[in-house]
């Protein structure tokens, strides 16, 4: 079994096809031998009867013969009515009667298959007992022919064996070549995949010409490589941006500490502590966002509880310290299913972004539109140009206006909010507004 497992698919299929063809040839040969042997046996029986009839005709025309000329393979004996041997072939002239298997019916001849007769020890023969009704009584003619062997004849057996061997070899060769041709694209795909490394995901496997399973395999492999390359590129950009954003607060903290250590007597340690705390807050916020991004990317499942959006918004607004005026237009009873904590994080990120850019007020709307729950967060700030509306959802992407207003942002709030919306089967988009930015969340209502 271990040897079989070590064989290639081509070898295994070749062996299997050869074995199957050998079995089919064996079965066909057996049926052919049985059919030919049956025909040969019938022919020998007919020949035996014909030889007997020839002797009977000679007996009726010329009288009792003294010898039996040219009997071929048959051994013949002729007995008169009193049981005396009158004539016989040389091989049974002095032996007992060939038809010594009981008294046959005198109205017809009888053929028996007899083995180990005294005249032919160790052999099996077909024996004919033929009654001849003459004027002086019933004469008996006995004739025996050799049985047809199971293989009928050596040339026939050799032909069948040779033909079967040739068919098995041709089948095995054809299977080997066919499987090799069929698996050639697989070998090409395997060779190409072996050359692809994590540092170079730009290569793609060759796509076969025929529209079959192998073509679908190659197309699927290339699509997987596309996704892997995109994921690796995103991870590289993410790692680069994350390291840059992590380095900024650390650099600021180091500069503060080094400055204070150079002039310890002149340093206002309380102001230095406040500056360090601000950098620590930014670092903590960034780490928190990075952990949230990692959980979402890993596909960590969230809860699936009923959540009333209006109640969620009310609770979050009541506990927040307001920086601007927040207007509420909340429709009660808009219930979706999802993870309350993640939805609260989505809302918090949108509110933080809106308050950061608002001039005087933020408007928050919850309503039902058909089978969809809709939540809008609108600020009265400068807004986002249409060509940059998708840019704000990219990780670490911060527009110049955002950097000028709040240098401590992480650039991950809006990407996290969109990813949370998508994990709930919904969408988060930045849409047209008379003034400012209008973020619209849409989540299907449970059926």
TrEMBL record:
Domain Histidine kinase: 241-447
SMART domains linked to this entry: HAMP, HATPase_c, HisKA
Transmembrane segments: 12-36
Database matches in InterPro entries: HAMP_dom (IPR003660), HATPase_C_sf (IPR036890), HATPase_dom (IPR003594), His_kinase_dom (IPR005467), HisK_dim/P_dom (IPR003661), HisK_dim/P_sf (IPR036097), Sig_transdc_His_kin-like_C (IPR004358), TCS_sensor_his_kinase (IPR050428)
A GO molecular-function annotation: ATP binding
Catalyses which reaction(s): ATP + protein L-histidine = ADP + protein N-phospho-L-histidine
Cross-referenced CDD domains: HAMP (cd06225), HATPase (cd00075), HisKA (cd00082)
Keywords: ATP-binding, Kinase, Membrane, Nucleotide-binding, Phosphoprotein, Transferase, Transmembrane, Transmembrane helix, Two-component regulatory system
Enzyme Commission number(s): 2.7.13.3
Compartment annotation: Cell membrane
Domain of life: Bacteria
Entry-linked PROSITE patterns: HAMP (PS50885), HIS_KIN (PS50109)
The HAMP domain, residue ranges: 180-233
Signal peptide bounds: none
PANTHER family attached to this UniProt entry: SENSOR HISTIDINE KINASE TRCS, SENSOR HISTIDINE KINASE YKOH
Name by which UniProt lists this protein: histidine kinase
Protein source organism: Microtetraspora malaysiensis
């Amino acid at each position: 079994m271990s040897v079989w497992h070590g064989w290639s698919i081509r070898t295994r299929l070749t062996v299997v096809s050869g074995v199957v063809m050998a079995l089919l040839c064996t079965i066909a040969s057996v049926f052919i031998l049985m059919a030919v042997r049956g025909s040969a046996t019938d022919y020998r029986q007919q020949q035996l009867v014909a030889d007997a009839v020839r002797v009977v005709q000679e007996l009726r025309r010329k009288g009792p013969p003294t010898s039996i000329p040219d009997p071929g393979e048959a051994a013949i004996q002729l007995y008169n009515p009193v049981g005396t041997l009158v004539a016989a072939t040389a091989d049974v002239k002095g032996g007992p009667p060939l038809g010594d298997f009981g008294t046959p019916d005198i109205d017809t001849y009888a053929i028996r298959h007899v083995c180990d007769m005294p005249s032919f020890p160790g052999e099996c023969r077909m024996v004919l007992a033929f009654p001849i009704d003459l004027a002086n009584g019933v004469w008996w003619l006995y004739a025996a022919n050799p049985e047809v062997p199971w293989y009928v004849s050596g040339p026939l057996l050799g032909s069948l064996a040779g033909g079967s061997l040739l068919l098995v070899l041709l089948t095995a060769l054809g299977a080997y070549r066919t499987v090799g041709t069929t698996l050639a694209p697989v070998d090409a795909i395997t060779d190409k995949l072996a050359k692809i490394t994590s540092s170079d995901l730009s290569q793609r496997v060759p796509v076969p010409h025929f529209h079959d399973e192998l073509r679908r395999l190659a197309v699927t492999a290339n699509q997987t490589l596309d996704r892997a390359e995109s994921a690796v590129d995103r991870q590289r950009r993410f790692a680069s941006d994350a390291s840059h954003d992590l380095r900024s607060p650390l650099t600021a903290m180091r500069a503060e500490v080094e400055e204070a250590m150079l002039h310890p007597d002149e340093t206002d340690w309380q102001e230095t502590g406040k500056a360090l705390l601000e950098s620590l807050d930014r670092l903590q916020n960034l780490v928190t966002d990075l952990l949230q991004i990692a959980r979402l990317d890993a596909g960590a499942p969230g809860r699936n509880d009923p959540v009333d959006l209006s109640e969620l918004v009310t609770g979050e607004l009541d506990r927040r310290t307001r920086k601007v005026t927040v207007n509420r237009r909340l429709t009660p009873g808009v219930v979706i299913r999802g993870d309350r904590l993640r939805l609260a994080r989505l809302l918090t990120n949108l509110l933080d972004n809106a308050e950061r850019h608002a001039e005087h007020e933020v408007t928050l709307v919850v309503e039902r539109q058909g089978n969809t729950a809709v939540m809008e967060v609108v600020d009265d700030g400068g807004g986002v140009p249409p060509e940059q509306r998708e840019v704000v959802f990219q990780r670490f992407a911060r527009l110049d206006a955002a950097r000028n207003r709040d240098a401590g942002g992480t650039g991950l709030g809006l990407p996290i909010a969109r990813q949370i919306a998508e994990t709930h089967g919904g969408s988060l988009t930045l849409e047209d507004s008379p003034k400012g930015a209008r973020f619209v969340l849409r989540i299907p209502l449970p059926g």
